[in-house]
Amino acid sequence: MTTIIRNGTIVTADLTYKADVRIENGVIAEIGPNLKGGTELDATGCYVMPGGIDPHTHLEMPFMGTYSADDFESGTRAGLAGGTTMVVDFVLPGQGQGLMDAAQMWHNKSGRACADYSYHMAITWWGQKVWEDMSASVDAGITSFKHFMAYKGALMVNDDELFASFRRVGELGGLAMVHAENGDVVAELTAKLLAEGNTGPEAHAYSRPPQVEGEATNRAIMIADMAGVPLYVVHTSCEEAHEAIRRARMLGKRVWGEPLIQHLTLDESEYFHPDWDHAARRVMSPPFRDKKHQDSLWAGLQSGSLSVVATDHCSFTTEQKRFGLGNFAKIPNGTGGLEDRMPMLWTHGVNTGRLTPNEFVAVTSTNIAKILNCYPKKGAILVGADADLVVWDPAKEKTIGAASQQSKIDYNVFEGQKVKGLPRFTLTRGHVAIHDGEVRTREGHGQFVAREPRPAVNRALSQWKDLTAPRPVVRTGVPATGV
Ligand code: DUC
Ligand code: ZN
Ligand code: ZN
Ligand code: ZN
């Protein structure tokens, strides 16, 4: 089956030029002027860009006593409606559960996906079995490993486990990832706040100040450095964490930071809204920050010290959020954003002049495809690449609202925001899933994207110190003479 995208302007991370695109069997077959034949899609006045990749979603995930509300069907449908053609979800093994067992559970859920997907593997406990399963995970195409430094007593791993796991990831050619918040300090602050009667959603923000994120980000970077492994820091939300990432990159380390669209566009005043539901719906970790931190995140995207914009899409209904009435620590952590990430970033990034269209493509698609080693199958407009494309109409406008969204939840954290810049068409492997707001997604169309490990490590030749190698024994026994 042939499809031609006609009269558009191609925008990639590097280039902007006028050309048509011919698609055969889900793959880009030709790029050039005046292509004809097959089904023609009119891209006049539009940009033709690589479809977005959201590398941070939690679909149908068991968490805090419930399940996140969007599943692989509604989640990928929401993504496609907003120009996102691939998601990377986190496999979350239970305590004592084997990694491949958990991966199978995720495969059972993701069969319903409307767009392509890949996985990261979460390391939620540590032991010989996990160590062994990590190599099976890499063999199965799941090469990135996420570690929670927060959620004490549940998902959190300690530093000894972090170091052991990072070394294992390094030896397998994988990518280490962290949710960087100091879980011990969060637990202490949470207990103190509750004891003082601070039970509302605003106390969630008090319990997770920027310092807990800055400290954990620094710690993860140093541990990754000692393990010689590249590090990806998810949901970088504050200057303290960004500063640590900037410094590491300046020193030549492969460390990447990922701000979320929510942290870029919403601030902590949301938690002081008089309506409990309004505030609780915005409870996520890390919490929204003040404007100073937002400025830092935008500056990071401009300068390249921050590489990727994601969502951490982990949606809960109002009813689920109300589990935390009277105790903020029981409000399920998470917000949606899959459908809104690209229109919000275009509106607040490109339309304001903060980002060029090419930078927009880089941070929504190409950079992460390279980091996760699925480029140029994804994140590129090149002959042979998957035809995951968005025909982006910069003049199209809408007001975001729960009433018209694809997500299953009953509200939207961006409710009432006007966006300008939306998909005219979204294509997943050549199939037109969205046409001018009309949803033509196909449940089960999505395919798993297996990824290869990559042997690059964080070692500069001139200062290679293998801290895990045996050390020379200089002295033996005890000194014959005392001090
Ligand atoms: N943060 C959230 O807000 N939800 C899911 C997990 C996380 O780290
Ligand atoms: Zn997280
Ligand atoms: Zn997350
Ligand atoms: Zn199809």
TrEMBL record:
The keyword DNA damage does not apply. InterPro entries: Amidohydro-rel, Hydantoinase/dihydroPyrase, Metal-dep_hydrolase_composite, Metal_Hydrolase, Metallo-dep_Hydrolases_sf. It catalyses: 5,6-dihydrouracil + H2O = 3-(carbamoylamino)propanoate + H(+). SUPFAM superfamilies: Composite domain of metallo-dependent hydrolases, Metallo-dependent hydrolases. Residues 47-419 form the Amidohydrolase-related domain. The modification N6-carboxylysine is found at residue 146. The keyword DNA damage does not apply. GO terms for cellular component: cytosol. Its EC number is 3.5.2.2. Keywords: Hydrolase, Metal-binding, Zinc. Carbamylation allows a single lysine to coordinate two divalent metal cations. One of its GO terms (molecular function) is metal ion binding. One of its GO terms (biological process) is nucleobase-containing small molecule metabolic process. Its cofactor is Zn(2+). Belongs to the metallo-dependent hydrolases superfamily. Hydantoinase/dihydropyrimidinase family. Homotetramer. Catalyzes the hydrolysis of dihydropyrimidines and of the structurally related DL-5-mono-substituted hydantoins, to produce N-carbamoyl-D-amino acids. This is D-hydantoinase/dihydropyrimidinase.
